Amino acid sequence: MELNEAIAQAMYRIEQIGTGLQQTVSFKSEADANRYWKFFVENEDVIRAEYVNPLLIADVGYSLRQLKRLDFLNCILPIPIFSERFVEKNAETLKDDLLFFPCSVQSKHDMLPFYMGRILNISSILDVERSGKWPFVYHKANNDHYIVRDATHRSHYVASERLREIGRDYRIEWNKVALNKA
């Protein structure tokens, strides 16, 4: 297998840069979490797009300085959350794969702008037969996409090497996923 072919087949989990703590942002209420699960994970239009502007609460372990520097935040729900600087530079390139919606992240008394991504590409990427509890095994996603969500197990999504290339200069962690070689 050539290097370019190996790179094209790589798929990744996107995560927040490791800060030594299991930090996440969460919604201010369970009702908000349920509504945004349907909108962002299930891709149901339960909210008119112009009214999507959620408030997320940063866990106690975050410092304001960390939040200002991070380009991706781990969310309690499987929704990618990107920094304003990432979205300003890449929204046009990613428009067929991700719709970005503004959100605010509250850290104590400060509010910071971020963007939640609604993944538009849905495919059967999780290899249920080969996956145990951990690690999960994935089918290779279409190379034409930057990011794909699983059609059945909606909490799973993976990013392609193409998205990783775009995100190289940002404070984002890229963890390779196990791919089904068959």
Provide a count of the helices: 5
| Biggest sheet overview | 6 strands, mixed
Principal-axis shape equals: globular
Radius of gyration: 16 Å
In terms of DSSP E residues, the strand content is 25-35%
Straight-line distance between termini: 14 Å
Structural class: alpha+beta
Query: What's the total count of β strands?
Result: 13
Largest sheet, spatial ordering of strands: 2-3-6-7-5-4
From N to C, what is the helix and strand string?
HEEHEHEEHEEEEEEHEE
Low-confidence stretches: 1-8
Average residue-wise pLDDT: 84
Helical fraction equals: 10-25%
Which key phrases capture this entry?
182 residues; alpha+beta; six-stranded mixed sheet; five-stranded mixed sheet; 5 helices; disordered N terminus
Overview of the structural elements:
With 182 residues, the protein is an alpha+beta fold. The protein has five helices and 13 strands. It has helices spanning 3-9, 30-41, 64-69, 84-90, 161-167, and strands at 11-16, 25-27, 55-58, 72-73, 81-83, 98-107, 110-119, 122-123, 137-138, 147-150, 157-160, 172-176, 178-179. It has a six-stranded mixed sheet with strand order 2-3-6-7-5-4.
Please summarize what this structure is.
The chain is α+β, with helices and mostly antiparallel strands. Helix content is 21%, strand content 31%. β6 and β7 (110-119) form a beta hairpin.
Topology of helices and strands:
Layout: H1 3-9, E1 11-16, E2 25-27, H2 30-41, E3 55-58, H3 64-69, E4 72-73, E5 81-83, H4 84-90, E6 98-107, E7 110-119, E8 122-123, E9 137-138, E10 147-150, E11 157-160, H5 161-167, E12 172-176, E13 178-179
Parallel strand pairs: 3-6, 8-10, 9-13
Antiparallel strand pairs: 1-11, 1-12, 2-3, 4-5, 5-7, 6-7, 10-11
